[in-house]
């Protein structure tokens, strides 16, 4: 296994560990145990806890960018708010279905990293791109500052569906996509 592959494996395992057991459970020893590696192996690749947390933030961000590149959205200038909302809702639903560990880890780390402005800022922008949101609103003749508010709506929806009132609504179902579509379309029609 290459060094890059080993680092990715450790970061992925760290994400799963935080998602299942919380941020305090993330230690080099716990990673070595989870990966069935000799003691000290994960600290060879990530010397400090901050280096490990940086790897987790980078991995979540990398996967988010890959997901977004694969997503198919209607061209904003040519599409109705209903169609755009459905596309965004379908993408967010897939995020909820396929990356639940990333989402739970991200929420835990946003609180944990509140005193680390560099990592917190990077993590806060890991799911939704302010630049892409501005493009959406610019193409629809909306004020571009509405984009940041729209990201807050999406962040709230993800939190609600991950750990909030609607955590029991199963992603990957028509009901899930419908609920997200209703939320997004209300915002898009208002701007």
UniProtKB/TrEMBL annotation:
InterPro entries: Homeodomain-like_sf, HTH_TetR, TetR_C_31
Organism, as annotated: Nocardia puris
Record has Cell membrane as a keyword: no
A molecular function GO annotation: DNA binding
The protein's name in its UniProt record: TetR family transcriptional regulator
Entries under Gene3D superfamilies matching the protein: Tetracycline Repressor, domain 2 (1.10.357.10)
Record carries keyword DNA-binding: yes
Keywords, in A-Z order: DNA-binding
DNA-binding region: 27-46
Highest taxon of source: Bacteria
Residue ranges constituting the HTH tetR-type domain according to the UniProt record: 4-64
């Amino acid at each position: 296994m290459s060094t890059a592959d080993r680092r990715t494996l450790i970061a992925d395992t760290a994400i799963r560990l935080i998602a299942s057991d919380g941020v305090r459970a993330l230690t080099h020893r716990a990673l070595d145990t989870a990966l069935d590696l000799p003691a000290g192996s994960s600290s060879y690749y990530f010397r400090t806890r901050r280096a490990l947390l940086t790897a987790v933030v980078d991995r979540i961000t990398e996967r988010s960018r890959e997901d977004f590149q694969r997503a198919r959205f209607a061209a904003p200038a040519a599409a109705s708010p209903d169609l755009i909302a459905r596309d965004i809702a379908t993408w967010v639903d897939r995020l909820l279905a396929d990356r639940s560990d990333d989402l739970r880890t991200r929420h835990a780390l946003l609180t944990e990293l509140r005193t680390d402005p560099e990592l917190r800022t990077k993590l806060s922008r890991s799911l939704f791109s302010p630049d892409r949101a501005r493009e959406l609103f610019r193409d629809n003749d909306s004020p571009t500052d509405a984009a940041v508010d729209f990201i807050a709506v999406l962040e709230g929806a993800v939190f609600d569906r991950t750990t909030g009132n609607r955590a029991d609504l199963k992603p990957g179902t028509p009901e899930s996509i419908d609920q997200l579509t209703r939320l997004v379309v209300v915002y898009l029609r208002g701007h």
